[in-house]
Design brief:
CATH architecture: 3-Layer(aba) Sandwich
CATH class: Alpha Beta
Radius of gyration: 17 Å
CATH topology: Rossmann fold
Number of domains: 1
Strand order of the largest sheet: 2-5-1-6-7
Length: 210
């Protein structure tokens, strides 16, 4: 099993990069584990407090569960991945059943901040993007998908997203094996990354080939 970690700031284009990689790989070879599915359940908090949760701090993610699930997949076991709702800031009762595949892609803004998690990765990728481009994507996404107003999005960006990016996410770039500038628009970088994954899918030796 090849474990690929794809990190990057909020709105950097990580999801687009993941989609384009999957499109180029054989069908049924890849399973995706989004960090967003592993945010801690906050159903015990009043709704007012949930709306103030800092989702850009590593403490908001249940990394031990994510690591445990990744280990199970690596051991050939089926896992039940949580479903997290940004609208309610809670986990659903339902889960998503994931089966082991040849390639596991772990995707999320903070996946390179956790030492145990990143040490499980064979390839570590950081998707880089200009801060203004990331902000534009965050505004569009949070309004459409998370029901937030422009004022609320900008306020959150100034108070949590930007400072957390500078404190935790940007520094984690130094752990990356590959940096992808311009996000999903960088066809060359995506092709190189896909080629590395394809080469390791067909490798016969136990060593990672980069």
């Amino acid at each position: 099993m090849l474990i690929v970690g794809i990190a990057g700031g909020t709105g950097s284009g990580k999801t687009t990069v993941v989609k384009k990689i999957i499109e180029k790989l054989p069908e049924g070879e890849v399973v995706i584990m989004p960090q967003d599915s592993y945010y801690k359940d906050n159903s015990h908090l009043p709704i007012e407090q949930r709306q103030e949760i800092n989702f850009d701090h590593p403490g908001s993610v249940e990394f031990p569960l994510l690591i445990n699930h990744l280990k199970k997949l690596k051991n050939g076991e089926i896992i039940n991945m949580p479903i997290y709702s940004y609208l309610t800031c809670t986990r659903a009762d339902e889960t998503v059943k994931l089966q082991p595949k040849h390639v596991v892609i772990v995707e999320g803004i903070m996946i390179l901040t956790d030492k145990k998690l990143r040490e499980m990765m064979d390839i570590r990728v950081f998707v880089d993007a200009d801060a203004d481009d990331r902000l534009a994507r965050v505004i569009k996404r949070d309004i459409i998908e998370r029901g937030r107003s422009v004022d609320k999005v900008l306020d959150r960006y100034e108070k949590t997203v930007k400072p957390m990016h500078l404190q935790f996410i940007e520094p984690s770039k130094r752990f990356a094996d590959i940096i992808v500038p311009q996000g999903g628009n960088n066809k060359v970088a995506i092709n190189i990354l896909t080629s590395i994954i394809e080469r390791n899918l067909s490798r016969s030796s136990g060593k990672l080939q980069i």
